[in-house]
Structures are given as C-alpha cells and as structure tokens.
Amino acid sequence: MAEMIVQEKKGARQKKNPIRVDMTPMVDLGFLLITFFMFTTNFTKPNVMDLGLPAKDPNPNPINIPYIDHLNQVTFILGKDNRVFYHQSNEKELTANNLKETDFSGVQISKIISEAYSKAPKKDIFTVIIKPTDDANYKNFVDVLDNIAISKKERYGITDIKPWEKKVYENVTK
C-alpha cells in the first residue's frame, strides 16, 4: 500500500517526508477486473438470416430456364412508409385496381402467398418475387423473407421493380 519513508535528521529544521505509493496491488486488481469482465461478457454470435441462393451453374444454359407465368407467381412491391403492395398480373393487365395493398401485421403476407399458391396452375414452379423500391427499408424486406419462410415456399426471387410496375405503383401511392 502506501509507505512512508521517514528519515530522521538531527537538526533544527525538519524536511517533508516523500510519499512512495506501491502500485503492485493495483496491477493485481487490474487483472482481476479483466478476468471478471471476460467471464461475465456474453460471447454470442450475431443473428444472421440465411439467404438461400442457388449454386452457380458452371455451364449456364438459358434454354432450360422455365417461363413463370403471372398466375404461377405473386409479386410483392415494398414501398415507403412501411407499405407493401402485391399483384399477380402481367404488364398488360396491371392497373391500379389489381395492385392491392396489405400490411405486415400478423401473417397477412403468408396468407396471400398461400392463396396465390393454391390458385397456381403449376405449383412446382410457383415463385414469390420481392421488388423493393428505393424508398423501402431493410426491416420490411426481412419481414417479407420471414413470411416466405413461414409459408414454407422455397422458390423466391429478389429483383428491381419494372418501369411498368413503378408507373402503376406511383399512381397508387399519390
């Protein structure tokens, strides 16, 4: 601890005694604190969503890519202010009436996916397509992926919104 070195001299004047602090216990305390915080800290791995991407084909052959009709898919457009729209239309049929809006409460998106799947003529190639706009946020994107996982559909795609969809989307959101 603190130790005082006292030197007594004979004389009329008495000098101030220097104080010497022993730092050895402070080093021990430092190591004890380090080990305490190491043992009490949670060493958890960050939660990461597994995004199933297809394996890269060494011999890509565009002839074998199946055409997915608009009846065999459901498209979700993620917009601003936590809004999500969906449709099952092609370029010629998509209007403001066909572009329907839903929300992220409960399992609404899972129900929409299940209903579209039950109406699909070729269920083996049924695909869910996610098209986030520039104003969409990441949380909504993850919510849609969670709902796809809940509905147990393994075929999904993520792509940019097409110009004809963007035109209808902008008319609906005005």
TrEMBL record:
The chain crosses the membrane at residues 21-39. It is found in: Cell membrane. It holds the Pfam family ExbD. InterPro entries: ExbD (IPR003400). It is a single-pass membrane protein; Single-pass type II membrane protein. Keywords: Cell membrane, Membrane, Protein transport, Transmembrane, Transmembrane helix, Transport. Its main location: membrane. Belongs to the ExbD/TolR family. This is Biopolymer transporter ExbD. It comes from Chryseobacterium kimseyorum.
